[in-house]
Amino acid sequence: MTGTLFLIPNTLGKRDAFDPLPDVIPAGVQQIAAQLDYLVAENAKTARAFLKKLNETSALAHPIQQIEIRELNVNTRAEALAALLDPIAEGRDGGLLSEAGVPAVADPGADLVRLAHARGVTVRPLVGPSSILLAVMGSGLNGQSFAFNGYLPVDADARAQKLRELEARSRKAHQTQVWIETPYRNGALLEALRQHCAGSTLLSIAVDLTLPTETIVTLPLSAWRPDRLDLHKRPAIFSLLAS
Question: How many of the other CB atoms lie within 10 Å of CB of 181?
């Protein structure tokens, strides 16, 4: 009999050292995570930090140094996935832990989940914070139809073309377009939006979701100014809806 692959959500952003996990991670999820002795995570060091915080409210069943942690990130080769899944396929319960938010969404863990299904391993997604869904919920834009587009191109010309494509798609389908950006490029992205998209297009920016400094602002692009919201090095989700 195979074990179960639990998809374990993590917190969003950098939280105060004294912030308890129950603020964003349900107690039932904590209890399941605390029982596991095998984790697949993007970064072993931050996974151990998560476990230390988890132990404050849900006592770990095993000492942290005895919990096996293997890394799965953008540098992991496809042929290495089978070995990551082997302990679970052989009967050991394990967890897939994201660096932030929920695993397998805008996250390299999706490939491991697909392999788990192919090998008949039970997959259990657990409830936790998703910056994408929280941003759509708080935007006031179309939540019936939306698309997540990951990161936009870094090159200025390619980014401008992509923004025009997303705006046209949004206008045609009345579909909210959602994406993320590296925090230090937020300001440049906002300026590109103001330059290449229509002033009537609605833009929502959500920063620091679930943190004490959380802010969500939705305005037509014509009303957005660089000083409207401090975006400097803050985790942000951008959502656009064109009319």
Answer: 21
The greatest distance separating any two alpha carbons of the chain, rounded to the nearest whole angstrom, comes to 59
86 plus 194 within the same structural domain: no
| Confidence class for position 107, pLDDT limits 50, 70, 90 | confident
**Tens digits of per-residue pLDDT, 215-227?**
999 999 999 998 9
Q: Is the pLDDT assigned to residue 38 strictly greater than 60?
A: yes
71 token code pair: 């890394």
Q: What is the pTM of this model?
A: 0.91
* 111 in the same domain as 164: no
> Distance between CA atoms of 22 and 57, rounded to whole angstroms?
8
Q: Please report, rounded to a whole number, the percentage of residues in the chain having pLDDT higher than 90.
A: 90
Residues 95 and 184 in one domain: no
Could you write out the DSSP letters of every residue in 16-70?
A: -TT--GGGTS-HHHHHHHHH-SEEEES-HHHHHHHHHHHHTTS--SS-GGGSEEE
Residue 238 CB: number of other CB atoms within 10 A?
A: 23
Q: What is the mean pLDDT of residues 40-67?
A: 95
- The whole domain housing 225 covers 131-241
Q: Which of 125, 151, 172 is the last residue of a domain?
A: 125
Number of domains within the chain: 2
- What is the per-residue pLDDT across 171-186, written as a single tens digit (0 to 9) for each? 999 999 999 999 999 9
Contact 239, 148 (CB under 8 A): no
- Structural domain ending residue among the three candidates 125, 147, 170: 125
Are residues 99 and 157 located together in one domain of the fold? Answer: no
- Closest C-alpha among 14, 52, 6 to residue 32: 6
